[in-house]
């Protein structure tokens, strides 16, 4: 894979940008929960200058499509769409949960990852992923928003050793400790654009891109998100 892909993510407290040019990776990342709009575009400029390329040189623009903070997801997709429109680039939405799975593999070699992001309202955004031989990831559990208590009741025991990722494990430690699966504590708390850009390669190779006007977020709690917008009550 030798594509040129820019990725950005603001779906959680972490603000990150990554640019892949062939086998080289240029990254910026900072935990800045209230400063995404100030941080992300300067990060984009920095990685493009460091790599010596322009937006017009790229093959695609990837973004963290959620789940995550409603505001953060909207900021990320809005900025990504603006960049993609201006440079006429196809877009690739990547799951923030899958990105954390890839981050757990990158940092710890984990091949089976259980991801839980604190979704507030006593719920988590949940998903489990297993790494395939080609380096891609398959969903074991479909992404969902669920209370830890209900998750503990519904989850079936298996023989795999899962690596935990995401903020939900600390936020609901007592309830998630009741899960029947074997889970090892992990330190990947947030998705990162360098993992999003890695996953985006597979989607680009399969032709899974959309035009900028059709790029869409994944909230998993759509009704609540849309009710917060003016005119959507």
From TrEMBL:
<dbReference type="GO" id="GO:0002949">
    <property type="term" value="P:tRNA threonylcarbamoyladenosine modification"/>
</dbReference>
<dbReference type="GO" id="GO:0005829">
    <property type="term" value="C:cytosol"/>
</dbReference>
<dbReference type="InterPro" id="IPR022496">
    <property type="entry name" value="T6A_TsaB"/>
</dbReference>
<dbReference type="InterPro" id="IPR000905">
    <property type="entry name" value="Gcp-like_dom"/>
</dbReference>
<feature type="domain" description="Gcp-like">
    <location>
        <begin position="30"/>
        <end position="227"/>
    </location>
</feature>
<keyword id="KW-0808">Transferase</keyword>
<keyword id="KW-0819">tRNA processing</keyword>
<keyword id="KW-0012">Acyltransferase</keyword>
<dbReference type="InterPro" id="IPR043129">
    <property type="entry name" value="ATPase_NBD"/>
</dbReference>
<comment type="similarity">
    <text>Belongs to the KAE1 / TsaD family. TsaB subfamily.</text>
</comment>
<keyword id="KW-0963">Cytoplasm</keyword>
<dbReference type="GO" id="GO:0016746">
    <property type="term" value="F:acyltransferase activity"/>
</dbReference>
<protein>
    <recommendedName>
        <fullName>tRNA threonylcarbamoyladenosine biosynthesis protein TsaB</fullName>
    </recommendedName>
</protein>
<dbReference type="Pfam" id="PF00814">
    <property type="entry name" value="TsaD"/>
</dbReference>
